[in-house]
């Protein structure tokens, strides 16, 4: 049966949020024949979340045993993925019931896609949702469009936390970048410069807004300029190196 692997890096203080993330996976309406595995990778030196993941029969848990950061933790989760597709699900975010199905069906309708980005609504503290206006039309996104957007604007018009990609594509590009920030943007623009993708017309996930968000920590913004420089350098190198795979390995 076809399988989609959900990758969730998590810290020990996210226990309650992790339960809700798991419940949103359990509520998915997948296309006929599809199955899901939830690969939870706990970062930090004092892991404590194994028992929570055991509530969910589709979960596969491992702990780093030491603090390694989000990019390495995602890549360790990737190394355990058995699905032909991988989907990013942060520990404090939630999937909407048709979320994964919309992504899977986009890949089925457009066989040449290598990534699908789900639009995400903000989930506010009072339980209400707030739509986010994107500077990109929904539907098919040709190769190079997101990369050029980054070159022109210094960012991307979608949130990489709602991304589904072909597993082999992510592995071929080395997974998430070893960057101090924006490791997910670095991977997205690398994939999007090589292959077409798709932006869903409606929200498929919810981005929880809460005081404990990593991006709200003091000093979090300080290293974004360095990360953006790394991404820009990668774009330039990828465009000028003219590397390609040859048929038959020759």
UniProtKB/TrEMBL annotation:
Q: Which InterPro entries match?
A: Glyco_trans_2-like, Nucleotide-diphossugar_trans
Q: Which residues form the signal peptide?
A: none
Q: Which residues form the Glycosyltransferase 2-like domain?
A: 15-112
One Pfam family, please name it. Glycos_transf_2
Can you tell me which residues the record assigns to a coiled coil? Answer: none
Tell me the protein's name.
Answer: Glycosyltransferase family 2 protein
């Amino acid at each position: 049966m076809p399988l989609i692997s959900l990758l969730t890096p998590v810290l020990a203080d996210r226990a309650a949020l992790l339960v809700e993330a798991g419940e949103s996976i359990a509520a998915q309406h997948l296309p006929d024949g599809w199955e899901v595995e939830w690969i939870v990778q706990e970062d930090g030196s004092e892991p404590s979340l194994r028992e929570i993941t055991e509530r969910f029969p589709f979960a596969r848990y491992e702990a780093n045993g030491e603090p390694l950061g989000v990019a390495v933790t995602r890549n360790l989760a990737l190394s355990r993925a058995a699905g032909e597709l991988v989907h990013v699900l942060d520990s404090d975010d939630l999937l909407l019931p048709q979320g994964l199905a919309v992504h899977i069906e986009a890949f089925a309708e457009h066989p040449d896609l290598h990534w699908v980005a789900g639009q995400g609504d903000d989930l506010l503290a009072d339980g209400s949702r707030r739509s986010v206006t994107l500077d990109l039309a929904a539907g098919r996104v040709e190769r190079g469009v997101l990369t050029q957007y980054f070159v022109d604007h210094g960012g991307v018009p979608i949130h990489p936390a709602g991304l589904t990609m072909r597993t082999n594509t992510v592995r071929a590009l080395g997974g998430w970048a070893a960057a101090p920030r924006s490791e997910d943007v670095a991977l997205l623009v690398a994939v999007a410069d090589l292959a077409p993708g798709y932006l869903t017309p409606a929200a498929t996930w919810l981005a929880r807004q809460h005081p404990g968000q990593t991006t709200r920590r003091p000093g979090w913004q300080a290293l974004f300029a360095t990360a953006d420089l790394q991404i820009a350098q990668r774009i330039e190198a990828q465009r000028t190196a003219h590397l390609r795979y040859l048929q038959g390995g020759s």
